Amino acid sequence: MDVIELLPRLHLLRFPVGQAYLWRDGSELTLIDAGTIGAGRAVAAAVTALGHAPEDVRRIVLTHFHEDHAGGAGEFAALSGAEVFAHHLDAPFVRGERPGPPPLFEDWELPIHAQAAQHLPAGEPVRPRRVTPVSDGEVLEFGGGAQVIHVPGHTDGSIALFLPDDGVLFTGDTVAASPVDGSVMPGVFNLDKSRLLASLGRLADLDAEVACFGHGEPVLGGAFATLRELVGAR
User: Fold this and answer.
1) Tens of pLDDT along 210-231?
2) Phi and psi for 108 in degrees, rounded to 5?
């Protein structure tokens, strides 16, 4: 796993598939997404290498239930004592009460998904003991007040998080950056592409300077212009 400083208070944690983000408020940390099955100890090691204890991570906020984002949540929560948050529509899948609905793949997505699946660990994730449900419009206690934005389409319960004081937006898989040329694109492997595009429009209306995607390189300046250009091209 690679650990990359994006801003003095923000680090990217990059896994073989997908990525997570670590936000710092003084001595208190928030983890946005949690990596794949078995990622908990790697996240704990990264936190320690940055000069913190795993217990300094007070919360894990999951943008959606897919295993490359939520697979490590239960393991790291057990190590750190962090509270796990997810949208109320995705929370049952994070808890393992039932399997989540699979994406409706476009033909061109199938070989990309098959290749990515080869890098996902086998087995069942450690489930969080408790998942706190959130809804659109709630404000979480980090980053000066992190706004929960419901962005259905990739999954029914996908969320983004916006930190208006710092202009930082965590998009989850509603938006991605291409691994080929770094271009910003709508997320793939969706449950409902039309709803995802509507959600993308909502994110483009925010005054985000920094956009952190579930996959691909973040945009570290003028993200609002990038997102608006993407919406205009659709």
Assistant:
1) 999 999 999 999 999 999 999 9
2) -70, -15
Cβ atoms 168, 223 nearer than 8 A: no
pLDDT of residue 234: 67
pTM for the full predicted model: 0.96
Q: Which is nearest to 41 in space by CA: 79, 84, 81, 96? A: 79
Specify the amino acid at residue 224: F
Q: Enumerate the β-bridge partners of residue 128.
A: none
Query: What one-character-per-residue DSSP string does the chain give?
Result: -EEEEEETTEEEEE-SS-EEEEEEETTEEEEE---STT-HHHHHHHHHHTT--GGGEEEEE-S---HHHHTTHHHHHHHH-PEEEEETTTHHHHHTSSPPPPP---GGGHHHHHHHHTTSPPSPPPPPS-EEEE-TT-EESSTTSEEEEE-TTSSTT-EEEEETTTTEEEEETTEEE-TTT--EEE-SS-S-HHHHHHHHHHHHTS--SEEEESSSPPB-S-HHHHHHHHHHT-
Structure tokens at 117: 């699946």
What are the C-alpha distances in Å from 63 to residues 60, 96, 199? 10, 16, 13
What is the token pair recorded at 57? 């991570």
What is residue 117's predicted lDDT score, i.e. its pLDDT? 85
Rounded to whole angstroms, the Cα distance separating 226 from 234 reads: 13
